[in-house]
UniProtKB/TrEMBL annotation:
Gene Ontology cellular-component terms listed: cytoplasm
Protein name: Phosphoribosylglycinamide formyltransferase
Pathway: Purine metabolism; IMP biosynthesis via de novo pathway; N(2)-formyl-N(1)-(5-phospho-D-ribosyl)glycinamide from N(1)-(5-phospho-D-ribosyl)glycinamide (10-formyl THF route): step 1/1
Pfam families in the record: Formyl_trans_N
One Gene Ontology term of the molecular function aspect: phosphoribosylglycinamide formyltransferase activity
Reactions that this protein is recorded to catalyse: N(1)-(5-phospho-beta-D-ribosyl)glycinamide + (6R)-10-formyltetrahydrofolate = N(2)-formyl-N(1)-(5-phospho-beta-D-ribosyl)glycinamide + (6S)-5,6,7,8-tetrahydrofolate + H(+)
Lineage top rank: taxon: Bacteria
UniProt-listed Enzyme Commission number(s): 2.1.2.2
Gene: purN
Positions annotated to bind N(1)-(5-phospho-beta-D-ribosyl)glycinamide: G16, S17, N18
Keywords, comma-separated and alphabetical: Purine biosynthesis, Transferase
HAMAP family with a match to the protein in the record: PurN (MF_01930)
Source species taxonomy: Bacteria, Pseudomonadati, Chlorobiota, Chlorobiia, Chlorobiales
Matching InterPro entries: Formyl_transf_N, Formyl_transf_N_sf, GART
């Protein structure tokens, strides 16, 4: 389809700095994609505010709003269908994406993780815990990983990685800052790669 912009959803729970960098990079490069939906388990957070300010549909979906897990999943799938979402970027989404949603987007859902997977991934490895573990292990480098999402935490195919040094005197906070800056470069590059893969799949 000529000039077809791939319709993206971002899933966020917090500040949403990766979301902002993605949104800006799409306009600046420019990329054949458009973020049209932000789904969050929190009604008020930096990411949702940014979406609202930028004319992106901001949809609050939390398991707590529903009588059953199935209804929660159905509502997430409905929102994705309603907005014709073709690919999903997880950007600081602090919940496990339901298996049915993962299954609906095979090779079409990316996550960014603040370490060099397969090390320092899995359940409980999020936020500052990751950087604390990296320092405790005496690593000399850390970094960021973008990977496809499958049913297992942080186990999908690795799409891109970038390293940053661990410096003497680093605290979890200073390391987190260096890794986050790396994430902001890496996620747009990974999106570009995904879009290329999607285009190639379309041609075949
Ligand atoms: C990032 O470190 C990302 O790797 C992790 O959560 C953090 C989100 O930060 N999954 P932000 O909300 O994009 O600023």
């Amino acid at each position: 389809m000529p000039n077809h912009k791939i319709r993206l959803a971002v899933f966020c729970s917090g500040t949403g700095s990766n979301f902002k960098y993605l949104h800006t990079a799409i306009a600046e490069r420019p990329l054949d994609a458009k973020i049209v939906l932000c789904i969050s388990n929190r009604s008020q957070c930096g990411a949702m505010e940014y979406a609202r300010e930028n004319g992106i549909a901001a949809v609050h979906i939390s398991e707590k709003q529903f009588a059953s897990y199935d209804e929660f999943v159905a509502s997430m799938l409905d929102a994705l269908h309603e907005h014709d979402i073709e690919a999903i970027m997880l950007a600081g989404y602090m919940r496990k994406v339901p298996d049915a949603v993962v299954a609906a987007y095979p090779d079409r859902m990316l996550n960014i993780h603040p370490a060099l997977l397969p090390k320092f991934g899995g359940e409980g490895m999020y936020g500052i815990h990751v950087h604390t573990a990296v320092l405790a292990a005496g690593e000399t480098e850390s970094g960021a990983t973008v990977h496809m999402v499958n049913e297992e935490y942080d186990k999908g195919r690795i799409v891109l990685q970038e390293c940053v040094p661990v410096l003497s005197g680093d605290t979890p906070e200073t390391l987190a800052e260096r890794v986050l800056a790396c994430e902001h470069r890496l996620y747009p590059a990974a999106l570009e790669k995904l879009l290329d893969e999607m285009k190639t799949a379309e041609i075949r």
